Fold:
Amino acid sequence: MPGVIAAGVLDELVAICGEDHVFTGRSALFNRARVPAPFPVHRWEEHIPQAVVMPTSAEQVSEVVKLANRDGIPVVPRAGGTGLADGAVPLRGGILVDVKLMDQIHEIDLEDLTVTVGAGINMQTLNRALAPHGVIYPDDPASYPCSLVGGRIGTNGWSLLGGRYGHVRDLVLSFEIVLPTGEIVRVGEGGGRKCRKSSVGYQLKPLFIGHQGTLGIVTEATLELVPRAECEFAGFFLYDGFEPAYQTMRKVARSGLSTLTGVMFFDPEKVAYLRRDDEAYIEVPDWVKAVCGISLYGSRCEVEPAVGEVMRMGRELGGRYIGDEISSADWACRHDRYATPQHGRTRDGQVVLMSWHCEDAALPISQMPAVREKWHQIARRYVERYGIFDDWGMFAYTNAGFKPWGDVLMEIDLGLWEPRMDEDNWQAFVSLKREIAQTVLEHGGTMSAAHGGTRAGDAELVPTEMGSAWDLMKRVKRMLDPNNIMNPGKQMLDEAYEED
Amino acid sequence: MLVFRLSAQRPPKPERVTDVVVTRLEHVLEVDPDLMRKHVAQQDIPNWDMHRIVSARWEHIRDIHEQWADSIVLAGEGSELGAGPPEPMGET
Structure:
C-alpha cells in the first residue's frame, strides 16, 4: 500500500496551489487511480494517490515538484487520464498533479500559424476556438473529444490524420516542462519557439515527447496550425478475404497521392466482431471478411480528382464499395473511437460487460499478416483457457507521419470480463499482453505506436526492446530525476537506481 | 398535435437478422435478447428513446464532420453490398 503524506506537506501544498486546488477526498483520489483500460479492480487501493493538486501555473507545478523532490514523495502527472497504457496510473501513491486547470489559449498567431496553449486544453475545445480563423490543430486521437494536449505530449500520441499532417511529435513546435527537480525549461527546435527545424544545440524536444510522465510535467505548448481542409473524402471497400484487403492497403499507402491522409484495415475477426456486437451495426453479408478504408483531405481541386483513383484502387483486387452514406458516417466515427460497446461474449455466446483492452504496436507492413495470425492464436488460447477474454479483432492504420507507407499501427482489441477480476485473472491478462508484445519484438516492431510501454506485460520488455540504448536511457532518467520521484516504477526505470 | 400513446412506444416483435442479431425498428439492429438473460439484463427502451439515440448519432456525426473540413466529397455511388463477392481472380 502507498504511504501517507504528512499533514505538514498537505499544508505546504495548500500554500502553493490554494485550498480549493488540493484534494484528499476518496472520490478525487479513486477516480484518478485508473484509466479506461482493464484495471486490477481487486487491488484498486494500491493505485490511489495520497493527494491530488490542480495547479494553475508552471510556477505552482515547479513548487509542488520541488517539495516532492525534497521529501522523496512520488509525483504522477495526469492530463485527461484517457491513455490506454497506464502512464497516468500511480504505482506508488504520492502527489498526483492534474493539469486540467491549465487549459487556457494564450495566443493564436495566424501569421506564423501557431497556437500557444496550456497543457490542460482538449483538442476538440481548441479546434472549436480555432474554427472561425480557418485553421485547425490536426491532432486527432481516438480520444479526441476527451484527451488533453499535455497527455498527448507525454504519450507521443498517434493521430488519425497523421499521414497528411503529422503526429504529436511533428505538431508540437516547442513546450515548457517542469523537470523532476522543479526547474522550468523550454524545449523546441533550438531556441526558436515557433520554428519547425533547427540545427542548433542538441535536439532535446524529442526526449520529452513520449516520456510517459517519467521526466517531468508539461505546462504549456506552442502547436502547429494548418489551414482547414476545404474538403474530405472517405471510401470503404469490402473484401472476401484478408489478402486482397491487405494488398489494397499496401498499394494505396504507396500510391503517392498527396492528399492521402490514411489507410485503415479491419481483419476477418474484427468484421466478425462488428457483426455480432457493434451498436453501430451495419448489416454485412457473410462473404465479407475484411475492410479497407481510405481517406483524403485537402483542397477540392486536389481531392476530387484523387477520388477517382481511390475508387479504382479500392476495386482493383475485388473490393466492393460500401456506399457514400456508410463511408462518410463511419469515417466520422473514426474521430471518436472511445465509444466502444463495452460488452463481449462468454465462450457460450452470452453477453457480459467487458472492459476494453487495445494492444497496439508498430510493425513493418510486410510483417502484418504473420503477426496478425500469431496474435489471434494467442488470444484464442487465453479465451479458451480462462473464459474472461473475448477477441474483438484486429485493425491497422498507416503509421508514419506525412508519408503513409512502410509501417503500420496494428492493434488487437480484447474484451476482459472485469467484474470477474482477481489476481489469477489479472496475471493471465498480463501474460496474454506479454505474449502479444513479445511477438511484436520477434517481428522487428515496437510494442506501442500510440499508447506507450508502461503497462504490466509491456513494461518488463522495455529493456529488451531498447537493447543497446537501455543503459543510456537509464542514465538519462537518473540524471534528470536523481531521486526517482517522477512517476516512479514505470518502464523498469527503477533499475536506473540500483546501479552505482 | 403529437399525442403520446404508450402503446405506440412499444417496439414491434423482433425479426431475426442473423443467429445473434435481431431488428425491431428500421435501421436499428440489436443483439439477440436471448443472449442477455444470464449475466446482463436488456433495458426496456421505449420507441421515442431509441429514435432519440439514433437521431443523436447522426447529429454527432454531422458535428464531427464539421470540425475537420468545410465539406464532404462523395464518390456519388451507392452500396455494392448486394452485388455479392467478386469473381475469383484469374477465372473468366
User: Anything to note?
Assistant: The beta strands of chain B are 15-16, 21-25, 28-31, 69-72. The mean pLDDT of chain B is 85. The two ends of chain B are 61 Å apart (CA to CA). The longest strand of chain B covers residues 21-25.
